Amino acid sequence: MSSTTEGARATHATLTIPGSNKTAELPLLNGTLGPQVADIRKLQAQTGIFTFDPGYGETASCESKITYIDGDEGVLLYRGYPIDQLAEKSTFLEVAHLLLYGELPTAAEFESFNRGVTMHTMLHEQVRRFFDGFRRDAHPMAVLCGVVGALSAFYPESVNVNDAREREISAFRLIAKIPTITAWAHKYSTGQPFMYPRNDLSYAENFLYMINAVPPEPYRKNPILERAMDRILILHADHEQNASTSTVRLAGSTGANPFACIAAGIAALWGPAHGGANEAVLKMLGEIGHKDNIPAFIAEVKDKNSHTKLMGFGHRVYKNFDPRAKIMQQTCHEVLGELGIKHEPLLELAMELEKIALDDDYFVSRKLYPNVDFYSGIILKAMGFPTTMFTPLFALARTTGWISQWMEMIADPSQRIGRPRQLYTGAPRRDYVSIDQRG
Ligand code: ACO
């Protein structure tokens, strides 16, 4: 493969297939940030070959203006703004506006956006009845998947994905209703009455209210916990083309309605290699039990035959500290301080585990660092959430990112149905043999 340059940067790469007279001129595309990207759209037409990239680690599946990650430097930007600045200074709904529309809102824009979202926080009363159909011990992710997908039955006009106003209303509905669905999934599992949303509260506070409040008691706000919740939501709001976002885009590329697409994203998020990791971290810490058991656990992780992973460590893109993990660790200390928890064995165990892993050549040589999930579970546990609610909380926050990515995709004139190819390694063509002649 060779390249043509213009100024400092190459403009084309040329791929030559040895032994044939076929070459492909691959334009090199430049983003605002990040490495150049070889455009292989004409590769097959020019050479007859196509590419093999299981897990798509080397493939840009779309053009996007929403989120940028520099995995080597540990940088995460939403629409250009560093995640630490947003986590410190912004609010979740402001970030939602930023992700959806590309800019932080003016005061007037925020007021209108806030009103636009909050007027959709209630669920149709028929939706409320769905919950009764689930077993009490149903995993809340199963409930979220089912209820969010079912919303399309209540908003049939949402199938008009080519209508910009319908798309926007669907986005508002999803961002507004997902806290209500998530909180009710929790209430259902505990047997407590569902609390209806309160539009006088902030997005994060309203969610905490629907989770924690009970009708006979006055609800007491806690600004520190509200801030922590808001920050957790901001940190999880978007993360470019990860597995669940790519799932939303793939489903959306067929023209499926947004509620169905977000339900697909929730399903993809559920797995322990993705959003399920925060739940898996607490399970892992519980199994390790004591810091004396860390060396044996680390030895098991390093044993190729064990299939045990250090959950909350490693990332497909970050080969440095996940910037969200640092903010999570700080938030964790703040929340425990506010709650008066001076001694949290799980946090102490996690910090010791992190220290040992960051000193171990196995993790250092593979550039495995703590990711966002390493500390989030400890905070959520301290805030009173059961472990099964950790991944639903992630889904709640990520709904804003998913729907922003979906909106961007639908409006992109170059978008077409997502349809990967394969390297076929099955049987070559053969003829059918009748059953009496097989054996
Ligand atoms: N513990 C132990 N070893 C690990 C870990 C880990 N957590 N993560 C990666 N490795 C090892 C792999 O075994 C592999 O080793 P090898 O080169 O000897 O074969 C090497 O590091 C490279 O790892 P890959 O599996 O190729 O990395 P990939 O990019 O495919 O996977 C993933 C990324 C899925 C996140 C992985 O690191 C993992 O499973 N981590 C634990 C689960 C987790 O925390 N997920 C949350 C991710 S963040 C999020 O979704 C919000």
Task: Put the structure in a nutshell.
With 439 residues, the protein is of the alpha+beta class.
What is the oligomeric state here?
Answer: single chain
Structural domains: how many: 3
Low-confidence stretches: none
CATH class of the largest domain: Mainly Alpha
Order of the strands making up the biggest sheet:
1-2-3-4
Report how far apart the termini are.
Answer: 49 Å
Which superfamily, in CATH terms, is the homologous superfamily of the largest domain?
A: Citrate Synthase, domain 1
Mean pLDDT: 94
The proportion of residues in beta strands is 5-15%
| Count of DSSP H/I helices | 18
Q: Which CATH architecture of the largest domain?
A: Orthogonal Bundle
Instruction: Please state the CA-atom Rg, rounded to the nearest Å.
Output: 24 Å
* Annotated CATH topology of the largest domain: Citrate Synthase, domain 1
**Cofactors and ligands:** acetyl coenzyme *A
